[in-house]
Amino acid sequence: MSVVRHSGRALGSAFFDRLEPRQLLTAVFWDGGAGDNFWHSPDNWSTDAVPTAADDVSISLPASSPTIIFDANSEIRSVRSLVTDESMSISGGTLSILEASSFNADLTVSGGVLDVAGATVLSAGGTLSAGFITGSGDVTVTGQFNWTGGTLEGTGLLTIAPAGSLSLTGSVHSLGRDAIFNGPVSWNEGDLYFYDAVVTNNATFTANPSASISAYGIVGDNSFVNAGSFIKQGASDTGFLVSSVPVAFNNTGAVTISAGQLSMQSGGSHTGDFSLAPGTTLGVGGDHIFAAGSDITGNGNLFVASGTSTYGGSISTSGSATFVGGTFTITGAVTAGSVTVSGGTVAFNGTASTPAFTFSGGLITGAGDLTVTGALSWTGGTLEGTGQLTIAAAASLSLSGSIHSLGRDTVLNGPVTWTEGDIYFYGATLTNNATFTISANSALAAYGIAGDNTFINAGTLLKQGASDASFLISSVPVAFNNTGTVTVSAGQLLMNSGGIHSGDFSVATGTTLGVGGDHTFAPGSDIAGNGNLLVASGTSSYAGSISTSGSATFTGGTFTISGSFSSASVVVSGGIVAFNGPASTSALALSAGVVTGSGNLTVTGVFNWTGGTLDGTGQLIISPTGSASLTGTVHLLGRDTVFNGPVMWTEGDLYFYGATVTNNAAFTINPVASVTAYGIAGDNLFINAGTLTKHGASDTGFLISSVIVAFSNSGTVNVLNGDLTFNQPTFMNSGDISLVSGSQISITGGFVQTGTGSITTQIAGATAGTYGRIIATGPAAIDGDLTASVVGGFTPQRFDRFDIVTGSSLTGTFDNVVLPIAAAANRKWVIVYQPDRAQLLYTSTADWDNSGTIGSADITAFLSSWFSDLQNGTLTADFNNSGSTGSSDITAFLNAWFFALGGG
Known about the structure:
rod-shaped, disordered N terminus, single chain
């Protein structure tokens, strides 16, 4: 192949083949031979003839750069193609270009017709002020094109290339040609008349009018498609309006309203975004469809008043959105600086938010969530739909006026004030995550009308005002669920429809929290403060904490408290109260009903037990600062109990059924009449690790009814009067037992004293009932200490015997024995261990074998000791206390023996 210049000379290697002969097209070029710039002057052309439809025309005179003038009046001139590097001006006639053309310098059309049938490029732009640009060929502008008037029409496209631009100024612009803007467009003046045209903007389209401008539909199907950036500037309005037919405004790109108003009154379809500057307005009329992803954003206003519109895209503006009538279905997200609904129906099927919401009438519905980020004033109307109403954290809600009908789930993240008007629930859940203040001079109520209804407080609910606030059943309940904090500052808050709670309740002095229906309090849910708790019916479970310095009163039903519990006072007069978590109170009054549960119940003050039942697997603990008083009638005890504070038992038997009582403090028994601790069922044990003191002449017993109540002592037992009776296999003492003169411990069973145990007894006489003693029907085993003292001026007589411990048999001895001081020089106290008892013996010093008699056996026993001393160097027989054992000890002993034998 060869490359050939216009002269026909070959280029490059001689080895290239020559082209075969072919017929060349007619090429006509401008030579300017006529000396003027007119197209119609024949001498200006290389053929000295004006080009025709068969000619390919080129114009390029870089040295002179003329402006070619086409002014053919009414003539029609045609060429096959045109390439010009020089400016052209068309002011009359018709220039028809049948095939491709290229205007590489300015083109000015101020009259006449430019008819292009082939692809045409305006690489240097141009101006259309009057006349027509028409034809079936596409026109591409790669430079600046100024449209001040005239008509653009035809079946071909007008394309503003990315390197080109379009300016619309002047007067009316008539458009009957589809146009694509890939380069910037500015529309500053002159209305735009559409007659069967589609404009597609892929670049930046700027409307900046000094006076209002509009796009009117004159005839045909018309639309403006913004696929790029549409910018509305200037204070004056720009509208896409209906004249005879609509001009739909379709946006697939971005619309920015920087000033004034853009009115889309002829409907439209949108997938692109809208941005509204402060003080601007986007007006929507007719039928619009905003697809998903189409956003209205910025700081301007949205006004919709009629028609049927669907918003599948997003609306986000800090200006206002006003709805005054009709039906508006918004499928996409909505954000507005303010929303006003005064009538009609607004359906938010996509998410919606506003910082200012005024709702006075009409209906708000839809499947989308509605969020208020500022102030919501609700004075009337109906909120319904499957979406949520959300009051944001920085927002607020005021409920006043008359009835508020709520059929939409509502989440309150900002403060709420409820001062007037009942709330009618019909299938709604209201969740408060902020501060919900109920303040009214008259009673307010939330009624359940229909459906499933719940009030969830996940923030702070403040009950103010002396009047009551109630969550009540009308036709159906309104459950009150608390996961936040409820503060009752005044009056009464009644939760009478049940509820579920994981949050806290604070009850001020003199106020009351009422609980009715079935309630569940989860772990971490606290009731605290200085007010009162009243529970009287239903089945409730408290797994959270209750802490109040007021009263907690239980009068009926079943109340299970699994969490911690603390109250200044607890009154149980009926029903069942189950403490399954740790519980404490300063005052407990149990007169009837049942206190049960697996949690420990600690009383830091006074426990008045006059009747009723204490049971459960937890402990009852009387703290060191607390005390217990057992009076009245029977006390049923099936709960382990620890007394760390003083106890006074004066009336009423104590029935044990599977309980262990541990006394670590002072347990005083001072009965008016005999009192008894009976074993009814289970394993029962009374552990005295403190001090148990028996007062009063009436007896006290730990006895068997069906089973035993075992008694174990590691502390101190003081028997100051009367008998203390135990019925158990073995009474174990590892502590101290103190028996005043005349007192007695009677054991139906055995007695064991360990090495840490001790017995202290007083002796006021030599007969039974005048000295303290322990009597067991079973075996007795002793160890530890014994201390005896003589009281009341009693003077024992020689050979008096005192049975301190008695059993069916006796094993062991006391490690340490402290005996009374002998009343005379020739007398002594000794401990004597008999087969069935431990005895104190007051005897003579010559009673060497401690037999309680004087005889030859004493001499034999003494001499045995005397000879043992001589052999072993001991001093057992140092009778005269000389420091050595010798014959003088025998003499002294015999003197004492003869004295004792004579009765001395």
